[in-house]
Amino acid sequence: MNITLAPDGPLDAAATLARYHLWGDDPANRVAGDVFRRVLRLDGRLVPYEVRCHGAVDDARLAVRVPGARGARVADAVTAEVRRVFGLDFDLPGFYRFAKGDAALAALVEPLYGMRPTLAPTPFEMLVGSITAQQVNLAFAFACRARLVHRWGEPVALGRDTVWAFPEAATLARAPARAYRALKFSGRKAEYIRGLAAAVASGALDLDALAPAPSAQVIERLTALRGLGRWTADWFLARGLGRGDVCPAGDLAVRKVFAHYYGRGRPAGEDAIRRRARAWGEWQNLAIHYLLAGLRLRAPAAGGGTA
Questions:
Q1: Which of 53, 37, 18, 26 has the alpha carbon at shortest distance from 161?
Q2: What integer is the mean pLDDT of 205-218?
C-alpha cells in the first residue's frame, strides 16, 4: 500500500523529526537519513510503515509505504498517525502571519521555516515518555525509554532496519518493579509507569475518550494519577493532543526561553509566563516549540520538552 500526503503549508521534515534522534536513539520511531519508520498497532496486528519526504519545503510531499497491507482501515489509521508525527494539522502559514507581531518569534521564522511540532504517535506512548523525562536530562530519559522499548516492545524488520512496536499497556503493567530498576528507572518512576499502564489496560483511563474533553478536564483527570502532575498534563495537551492554547510554563526549558527572549536573562515565575503566553491565544503551542528550537540553535545541547 502506498499513500501520498501533501501538507497545507511548508514542511521541513528533517527539522520536524529532529526530536526523535536529537537526544538519543528512539527504537520505536526510527529516523535514518530521509526515511522515518514506525510500527502501528491496529486491531491486535503490527503494521510497519515508512515515510519519505520529497520536494522542496514549500512543495513537500510525504510518500508513505505500508508493505503487504491493504484496506481502508489500515490506510486511515496510518494516515492519521503520519499526520500526527509530522504535525500536518498545525496552521504554519497562520502562525507565521501572527509571528510578525513578536520580534523574537519573527526572527525565528526564517531559520526554522517549515518546522512543525511533532505530536506523539499515541497518547500512552507520550505519557510513558513524560514520566521517563521527569527531573532528568533528556539524554538520560531517551536512554531509559530506549531500554524499555527494547525490553518489552516487539521488533519488526522493515527493509534493512528493525523498528520496535512500542510496548502495550498490559505488558508494562505486568512487568515487575525490579525489571524497571534494571533498566535504570527509579523505583518511583517504575511505580508511576506501572500504575499508568494498569489504568490504561483495565480501561479505568480511556485516553482516546479523554482526547476531546476540555483542557481543564484533561488536566484534572491526568493529575489524579500518581506521578502525573501539571507539567505532564500540559505537555500532554501540547504534544499529545496538539492543543494550540497551551503553554507548559512549569517546564525548566520553557522558563529558560522566556528568560532569554523576554526577560533579558532574568527568570520569570510560572504564573508570569502563563500570563505572557496567554496573549498568544491559539498560537501558544507553536510559539513555545519555535522558542525552544530557537534556543537549541544557539546551544544545541539545551533541553526542551518531554521525551
A1: 37
A2: 95
Distance CA 20, CA 25 (A): 7
What is the Cα–Cα distance from 110 to 117, expressed in whole angstroms? 16
| CA 75, 200, 25, 114 torsion-angle sign | positive
pTM tops 0.90, yes or no: yes
Long-range CB pairs of 6-10, under 8 A, 24+ apart, other chains included: 6/60, 6/61, 6/62, 7/60, 7/62, 7/86, 7/88, 7/116, 8/88, 8/91, 8/93, 9/91, 9/92, 9/93, 10/57, 10/58, 10/60, 10/92, 10/93, 10/113, 10/114
Taking a C-beta distance cutoff of 8 angstroms, is the pair 16, 119 a contact? no
Residue 197 main-chain phi, psi, to 5 deg: -60, -40
Structure confidence by residue, pLDDT tens digits, 126-159: 999 999 998 888 999 999 999 999 999 999 999 8
Domain regions of the chain by residue span: 90-240
Query: Under CATH, what is the fold of the domain 90-240?
Result: Endonuclease III; domain 1 (1.10.340)
